[in-house]
Automatic annotation (TrEMBL):
It holds the Pfam family FAD_binding_3. One of its GO terms (molecular function) is monooxygenase activity. Keywords: FAD, Flavoprotein, Monooxygenase, Oxidoreductase, Ubiquinone. It comes from Aurantiacibacter aquimixticola. It comes from the Bacteria. The keyword Hydrolase does not apply. One of its GO terms (biological process) is ubiquinone biosynthetic process. This is Ubiquinone biosynthesis protein UbiH. Its cofactor is FAD. Pathway: Cofactor biosynthesis; ubiquinone biosynthesis. SUPFAM superfamilies: FAD/NAD(P)-binding domain. NCBIfam families: Ubi-OHases. PANTHER family: UBIQUINONE BIOSYNTHESIS MONOOXYGENASE COQ6, MITOCHONDRIAL (PTHR43876).
Length: 404
């Protein structure tokens, strides 16, 4: 007899596996299928990227039982400093003492380790790693996927969580708006002389944002940060080929001595930057989550957090539907998910795209206008509060799993 489950989650990355665990906490079962080998994804040096986990996303991790495992590995973000090329007129976002932090920084590897370990012991999750899907079907009464080894998996709802190049989304014929920024993000770890004090820096240059994200000190007690440096695509290969000494000289120039002497912590990597947003995030017995639905610029560190909001909303509509006897793939539940998440995701995507273009205008006059506007925001507590709530993910109609 086939092991039919509630969800068939295609993609077991950060968003897909969080969805499976969040669903399990509500008694919702799932198959999770992923092409990758978990051992590769959690290997030292596989992915030097780090993610800013907003307050709302941290609430989600706490509500699904991961906070105790993750807490020792996260660096608290106490403040966000935004500046136009280190010139006067910066904005500082700092929450009130009773509000806690603006979020936490985690190495992506550490997030994967915690998620994968929790999934192994969860009976409501059937996990298929290193698996190739050769066929996907969505029928009137359920969905299925056939693996290369002949295994057939059945469920009520198919969820595409495969990332930007989602074959499930494309196979469903869901159209999307997209463009290439012709920029690349250079990722590197830095060890520095002065402490970061929990401050995340977003330094805007015409070529693109230059972000310094606070990490925990290493085992030797040295101060560390993650660098995400956006460069023009035409310059990216040249930047990657620089010697360590030359690379650090370019980084130091853009930091204006902020953290004192620098050294590299690990290697360098890069990935191209683009924008895409689907026309819809739900179809017949199909829901899209995370980058399968919306890929945005990392300018404000909201990409993963946007996907985790999808997770909270989808789990909530399915759980509430099941309580009144609805099938997890019911069209009413999916319509509610579409309405709930579609507009929010679109507005965040537009905002990040707009910021990228606004700060990319070169010249002294545009810079002066931007700095004047930033100085105005700095003097307006209500406007700063709105921006902080957005950064913390605590604005709008939040799913229950993302509330404190």
């Amino acid at each position: 007899m086939a092991d039919k489950r509630d969800l068939l989650i295609l993609g077991g990355g950060l968003v897909g596996m969080t969805l499976a665990l969040a669903a399990a906490r509500k008694g919702i079962s799932s198959h999770v299928v992923d092409r990758a080998d978990p051992a590769d994804l959690t290997a030292e040096g596989f992915d030097g990227r780090a993610s800013a986990i907003s307050t709302a996303s941290w609430n989600l991790f706490r509500n699904i039982g991961l906070a105790e495992t993750l807490e020792p590995h996260g660096c608290r973000i106490e403040n966000i400093a935004v500046t136009d090329a280190m010139r006067p007129g910066r904005i500082d976002f700092q929450p009130e003492p009773h509000e806690g932090t603006l979020g936490r920084m985690f190495a992506n590897r550490q997030l994967r380790l915690a998620l994968f370990e929790a999934a192994k012991s969860e009976e409501l999750i059937a996990w298929y790693s290193e698996a190739e899907i050769v066929d996907r079907q969505r029928g009137e009464h359920g969905v299925s996927a056939t693996l290369a080894d002949g295994t057939s998996l059945e469920a009520s709802l198919m969820v595409a969580a495969e990332g930007r190049g989602s074959p499930t989304r494309d196979g469903a014929g869901i159209s999307l708006a997209k463009w290439d920024y012709r920029h690349r993000a250079i990722i590197a770890g830095l060890i520095h002389e002065k402490p970061h004090d929990g401050v995340a820096w977003e330094i805007f240059y015409p070529a693109g944002p230059f972000a310094l994200l606070p990490l925990l000190d290493d085992e030797a007690g040295r101060y560390r940060s993650a660098l995400v440096w956006t460069v023009d695509e035409a310059d990216a290969d040249g930047v990657l080929k620089l010697s360590d000494r030359a690379f650090l000289a370019e980084v130091e120039k853009r930091m204006d001595g902020l953290f004192g002497a620098l050294e590299l912590n690990g290697g360098r990597s890069s990935y191209p930057l683009g924008f895409h947003h689907t026309a819809k995030i739900a179809d017949h017995r199909l829901a899209l989550v995370g980058d399968a639905a919306h890929g945005i610029h990392p300018i404000a560190g909201q990409g993963l957090n946007l996907g985790l909001r999808d997770v909270g909303a989808l789990v909530e509509v399915i759980a509430e539907g099941k309580r009144i006897g609805l099938d997890p793939g019911d069209a009413q539940s999916l319509a509610r998910y579409e309405k709930w998440r579609g507009l929010d995701a679109f507005m965040v995507a537009l905002a990040t795209d707009g910021l990228t273009r606004l700060f990319g205008i070169p010249g002294k006059l545009p810079s002066a206008v931007r700095r004047l506007g930033m100085a105005g925001v700095q003097r307006m507590p209500s406007l700063k509060r709105w921006f902080m709530d957005e950064a913390r993910g605590m604005s709008g109609d939040l799913p229950e799993l993302l509330k404190g």
